[in-house]
Amino acid sequence: MEAVFVFRPAEKTGKQNRNIIRFAMHTILTRLFRHNEIPKEYRANFIHLYLDIGWFGILSGSAVNFINVYATRLGATGFQIGLLGAVSAVISLLVAIPAGRWIEKRNTARAVFWSSVLYRLGFFLWIPLPWLFSDQVQIWALIVLTFLMAIPLTPLAVGFSALFAEAVPTDWRAHVAGVRNIVLSIAFMASSLLSGYILKHMSFPAGYQVVFGIGAFGAAMSSFHLFFVRPLQKDTPALPAQPGHGPAKQATSPFQVLRLDIWKTRFRNVLLGLFGFHFGQYLAIPIFPIYNVRVLKLTDDHIGIGTALFYLTVLLGSTQLRRMVHRMGHKNLTGWSVASMAAYPLILSLSTEVWQYYAVSLIGGLSFALVSGSYANYMLEHIPANDRPPHLAWYNIILNAAVLIGSLAGPVIADQIGLSQALLVIAVLRFLSGLSIVKWG
User: Fold this and answer.
1) What topology is assigned to 13-232+258-440 in CATH?
2) Separation of alpha carbons 331 and 382, rounded Å
3) 119-138, pLDDT tens digit by residue?
4) Residues 184, 53 contacting (CB under 8 angstroms)
5) Can you give the residue ranges of every domain in the chain?
6) For residues 62 and 192, is the Cβ–Cβ distance under 8 A?
7) 237 preceded by cis ω (within 30°)?
8) Alpha carbon of 357 to those of 116, 159, 348, 420: distances in Å?
9) Rounded to an integer, what distance in angstroms lies between the CA atom of residue 400 and that of residue 396?
10) Positive or negative: CA dihedral 94, 98, 103, 106
11) pTM of the model
């Protein structure tokens, strides 16, 4: 079946892409509007959360999706591509705890909105870079901009998880997460296919400037819908607050400010398990674009189609998320889906043709659908409702530690043992991290 998407004559590609999007739109509309039992007081939040992630999908499928490819075509080294992910992690590691305390003292919805506005303004600055700088200077300008954008990104990352928990009742989180994944998939596929088409038919670098413009507009609209998400008056706590582990605003000593007491709770196992997941995830990020461009010789159009196929199976997998959560629970679903993510680097390392890239994209999307829809809810199940920001700040720290170490270590490993061998190592690490969540998470 995978070959159907590869060996079509060129003139049929547009019709093929339209069929993919038409099928996806039918699926999402059915999914969105069949739940008439949703209470009225929840509907506005749910709709704006869906539209937020939809516009974020436009951003992700265009500017974010192609930024590493753009840097690679400018001549970026593996180290420089790794820095694109690592520099934001450095900032987040430094300010995650202060960001959590800052969120605690403010209205969560307003803090998230303004953080998103400041962060997403940076995407508009990507557009004029080709007019202003040479290729190598552009690479370093992107790294600097990413560094600066990470300052508001940190409270946004900490605050959004708290806002999601406040705006969506516990019983509806799996449903909302699944629908958000579907909306993200639709938007990502559409913008990825459109971006690939633009890059194929426009000269370099003008095509990338148009793609960056599309992404910046999506970023602005995503922030617009975040403005309308409101915490509910009543919230069902995932866990009762633990004695002596109150909110960070009561802290007085340096150790209390750091909230090291969180590492004495069961949440420690959650943090360690998610560190392993994110480390295996981000270890591969700098390697994928280099392997795709320099080994598989993929064009921007190939990458756009592959990404669309990836998110097609994300969409299909997300329609089953609620059912699988009820059957397996968030922890087991997270663990086994993380383990299944080993298939992507494993199969990619053995690939030599574009159709194999398309096939692995289809397989990888299914795993990603399940893990992306379950791991945040798995984490929230282990956080007291009245103490979310400090716990989420610690999660943000381990996430960005994994991003930093993985982004820098991935290119080093690839330089030492080769791209294909590095992907095999990453596959093993992903599988083991998934098993650790199932056993100890």
Assistant:
1) Growth Hormone; Chain: A; (1.20.1250)
2) 10
3) 999 999 999 999 999 999 99
4) yes
5) 13-232+258-440
6) yes
7) no
8) 34, 36, 7, 14
9) 6
10) negative
11) 0.71
